[in-house]
Write a structure and sequence with these properties.
The chain has 109 residues and is mostly helical. The chain has two domains: 1-30, no CATH class; 35-108. 67% of the residues lie in helices and 0% in strands. It has helices spanning 5-16, 36-62, 68-88, 96-108. The longest helix has 27 residues, at 36-62.
Length: 109
């Protein structure tokens, strides 16, 4: 797995400095050849994590488990994770959605 920790750190610093632009820093996963169904699970794992984080943010907001100081950050976290889920599941080559769909097609057809 390739994770650009330096870029993540830079983005976090820029966010805390109220930098006017939002940067998206991705990572990538490479793995040995897997059976099709297992490959589809690897492809969908990241987006599902984003979906779970969105659901967590919704729960925290709905049940009032966040104070006013952090409310906006939790809302933003939820919105970003929903966007990342939807964006990564686009079925175009290079996106997790394409890998997921192609692996499912190989597994069942």
């Amino acid at each position: 797995m390739g994770i650009p920790y330096g870029m993540y750190l830079l983005v976090i610093v820029l966010i805390h400095m109220n930098f006017p632009f939002l940067f998206f820093v991705g990572g990538y996963v490479s793995h040995t050849a897997l059976p099709a169904l297992q490959s589809s699970l690897v492809s969908v794992a990241g987006p599902l994590t984003n979906l779970l984080l969105w659901l967590l943010a919704l729960s925290v907001i709905k049940y009032g488990w966040v104070d006013r100081k952090h409310y906006n950050k939790v809302v933003m976290m939820g919105k970003l994770n929903l966007f990342f889920f939807a964006f990564n599941m686009i079925p175009l080559p290079g996106f997790d959605g394409s890998n997921f769909l192609m692996a499912l097609i190989r597994a069942f057809f």
